[in-house]
Amino acid sequence: QRRTEYQAGGGLRYQLSPRDELAVSMSFRADRFEEQDLDDLQETDFLTGRVSYARQVSSGLEIGVAVDASSIDIVDQSLGAISTISPQAIVSLALSPIWELAGSLGVASIRSDTNFSEETFTAFSGDVSICRSGVRANLCLTGARQVVPFGIGGAGLQSTVGATYSFRLSERETLSLSANYGKASGAFLAEGGGIETISGFVSYRLQLA
Fold it and tell me: What is the reported pTM?
């Protein structure tokens, strides 16, 4: 079954002081399917936002707090909607001049609301990344646990691992490769929860001026 995915997003960073930073970001994703064979597929609208505050404690250590919030609306209104809010502690540590470790950990409150019932769940959520920054090549290994829409009805807690590699071909050209694997460990507004996803991307960027 062919799926069309629409995405948009943006963010803003504000330097409160030489050591303090406030960041706000928001993204939107819509999953749509062809008209045929929609019995087992549900179209969703996924809106998520994040507000974070970070303070640089030392030259290699940054700590802070963040709040993530999201809303997952099932286009078929009879299936309801899911909303989440997750306060988190965040930390970023420079292990060396080229290696950096960053992560966040919190508790997500998940509320599912249908025409028939309302339920609230709690679960651990967060992410971690370790990145190497070189003169021409960069590498990042990532892991995360968060609530995401399935696109087949409902949403669930998904654990993901991934890797991103970028290489500067020249002063104006950059090639990037990324791969991700995810597995759902729970489901809301849907049956089951054993959904696995594998994705990969290749991008080429040319700076014109």
Answer: 0.74
| pLDDT value at 192 more than 60 | no
Model confidence pLDDT, tens digit, residues 92-147: 999 999 999 999 999 888 887 766 667 788 888 899 999 999 889 999 999 998 87
Judge contact between 11 and 24, C-beta under 8 A.
Answer: yes
Q: What are the phi and psi torsion angles at 77 (to 5°)?
A: -60, -20
Task: Let me know if 8 is exposed, middle or buried by CB neighbors in 10 A (0-12, 13-18, 19+).
Answer: exposed
Q: How far apart are CA 201 and CA 179, in angstroms?
A: 7
With 0-12 / 13-18 / 19 or more C-beta atoms within 10 angstroms meaning exposed / middle / buried, residue 40 is: exposed
CA distance 168 to 187: 41
> What is the number of H-type helices and E-type strands within the chain?
0, 11
Whether the CB-CB separation of 55 and 19 falls below 8 Å is answered with yes
- For residue 148, count CB atoms less than 10 angstroms from its CB and return exposed for 0-12, middle for 13-18, buried for 19 or more: buried
